[in-house]
Protein 1
Amino acid sequence: MTQTTMPPTEKTQPVSAPHGTISDRSKAERKLGWLLAGPAFFVMLAVTAYPILQAAYESLFSYRLTDPDNRSFTGLDNYWVILTDSLWWKALGVTMLITVVTVLVELVLGFALAMVMAKALSSIRPIIRAAILIPYAVITVVSAFAWQFAFDINTGFVNSWFAWLPGVSADTDWFGGTGTSLLVICLAEIWKTTPFISLLLLAGLAQVPEVLQEAAKVDGATWWQRLWRVTLPNMKAAIMVALLFRTLDAFRVFDTIFVMTNGANSTESVSFLAYRQTISRLEIGLGSAVSVLLFLSVVLLATMFIKAFKVDLASARGEG
């Protein structure tokens, strides 16, 4: 009985999905993802869709709440008024400044904390993680009041504790100028949300194959070389998620500004501008237009982040 064997030069190649198509594994994961996240997604869509559409509708009218009978359709005039007003551009500049400063600092500190949590001994790891996550558990308004109390010229302790620093004395009024006010706002935001970044980056660190780290050590790579060439490239998806979520959250900053300065000293953000137009001045049309512009800005930021990072989710799952 003769047996046929494959020639020694031929090897069996793994079967993979053709280029440009979706593998069966990817299809199954997408189906499972929709089953798990679909209900919450549709509930959130139903809750948020109406306010967004209502704001877009109200932005097309000249409508003041104290004069409901004098309501008239003005089309895009409200948007023209806002975009040609210096208040909008000042608020946008303040928002961008707070967003860039806080997100960059939080990314560096969050990564350092994630490394500490990842390398900590298993016996004390839960304690370290709980201690790091405490600020994120504090309500934003409570956190803002605490930071305002600490930096207050009359009741605060910062001036007495840090009087040895240049420019700091017992008479330093942190909320008396634009620069110092924004500094305190940024510090409060960084303290509050750095744990959120560290938690996301910790999940990304867990996805870095240990075999790659060991291979780099064998090849003589230094710690910095392993960080830039092994760790960070394999954390690209986690970094994108952390930056995206935190940037969108920082761009909508409101609570901290409302508590600390109430928009004084040119610290008004876009969200605060929408609040002032809608709640303080009762200009429903103009306030709705600001809200719509804020929403479009957030959508634009999200699109830019996704396009800039170009994360291949299939490769991140190991399908590449």
Protein 2
Amino acid sequence: MNSPKAPWAISVKTNRGIFCLEGSGRGLCRVVFPGKRRKVKIMGGDTETAREFATYFKDPRHRFKIKPDLSSCTLFEKKVYRALRRVPAGKVLSYGELAKRAGYPGAARAVGSAMKKNRLPIVIPCHRVIPSAGGFGEYSAGKKWKRWLLEYEKRDSSLGTRDSRKTGS
């Protein structure tokens, strides 16, 4: 990757609007959704990260290799985010299940707080975490985005499954 050493910001045009990615020499720091106001000077940045982010909107099964800058996160948050990044597109899990996977059984509420603090939605796919009681739960970019992301991933993964059965692969 061609990550600059200084802070950077780059806009990424997708079929769902223009996102802003902010980073540091350590990696991606923030994803800003279209329509969310944030005063950021677009000053060029990691074009490889931008290309990879845009790829998700063409193929939701894309597994991000983007390096996140988690330097401002607690050890707990880092473990939760790492566990969440292993959840494949099209799958969901509860806050309690994610807590178990991260090594903190019984810490569902703390996982919810970590999801709320996630500055890298989509890359750290907090949209895949839902309440055990049902429903979509909250999402920093709004419930419409969470619903769209879940349906987009699920629709694509089910099509992929049908296609593989059809072709015998």
Protein 3
Amino acid sequence: MRTNEERIEALHRRAKEIEKKRRDRQILTGQIAGIVACVALVFVLAFTMPGFSDNYLAGRHSSAMSASIFSDNNMLGFVVIGILSFGLGVAVTIFCFCLHKWQKNKESEQEEKQ
């Protein structure tokens, strides 16, 4: 039979475990929401940038010769999408690294309990 001190200690230990699980779940939810928001932003910009660059570049035609790749075509939209896609790739990589670390911590905690 347990003493009152042992019961209180078990209660505090269980409360800490529950709080840690809740915190881990919140972190994971925030990371997933961030990734979804980044993907949605890339898709929205991928569909809107060509129209924006058409309107932006339509009034900027000049008869002078220019060596810029952005002067007569719609490459500006593709460059912006490329940069945003790179940022999304970095965010997904960081998310996967954190998820892998979280899973390792969870496995080590389960091994310690056994």
Protein 4
Amino acid sequence: MTKVRVKKRNVTIAIGIVVVGIVLVAGIFRWKQELDYQKTYEFKLEEHGYSKEDTAFLIEKLEDKELDHLLELEMDQNIIKFMKETYYLKKNLEKYLAYQKEHPEDELSNIVAIINVGADKDWYSEYTETDLSKDYLLLCNKFHQLPENYTPEDLTKVKNWYAYGDDPQLREEAYSQFISMYNAAKEDGQDLIINSAYRSYQYQDDLYGKYLEWYGQQETDAMAARPGFSEHQTGLSMDIMTYGANASTFEATEEFTWLKNHAHEYGFILRYPKGKEYLTGYEYESWHYRYVGIEAATYIYQHDITFDEYYAYFIEGE
């Protein structure tokens, strides 16, 4: 074999070795890439059953520890749907899913509202003390109790010009805003009058006891608060009427229509609206208004939600 042939063969072998090396390196690189990809949430979520679109949504919305927890749960398309609900709270996801399985006919938005406010539980079954630091946005309902000795420090006596009854009182800002609302209504030819405002714990205790004697437990709890759970004790709630009307006729008055359209402009909301009894725990009361400030009242009015829902999402939050 000539030296030239030997040299050509060596070159061929060398080229072959280089090619094999390149192939091996490329293969190792692709193998490493695949291993790395299998560690990504994109791969894990798609393997778990989520579509590429849903996977992209989840990765953008959730932190790593939340994605890890999601992968521990059974894949459920309702998870994505719940997350896209306006008032979704991530702390409640598993409660939404559990409730949805028991009530598959319910709309998801309705389930979110029920779970957020705690209305999946029996009224008064679990409750905490009202967070008084929230001031005009404090929550007092069947799951949030005021201390027995709580009395607002800035209670102001309502002048007889604006009220019936025995010296009703309101917190200072709520009273000031009511006067502004009263005057605006008056200019539009409407007459508003406060029928009831602040009630002490003891007053509510006596009233609740009388209702129990007259109506029994179930009916009483639907229309009256137990002592410590009454919004009237906050000094921020009032029953508004007009001359010649009562609880059963007020809804048919022009004054009610005016309040329905304008109360939020002065920081007041209809506290127990019709159709939301399952969220508030109370029968519809066309006369019961609560002061929460103009910003909160306007949002509640514009989005047709209850204060319970507003508090759960914007005050308690995640």
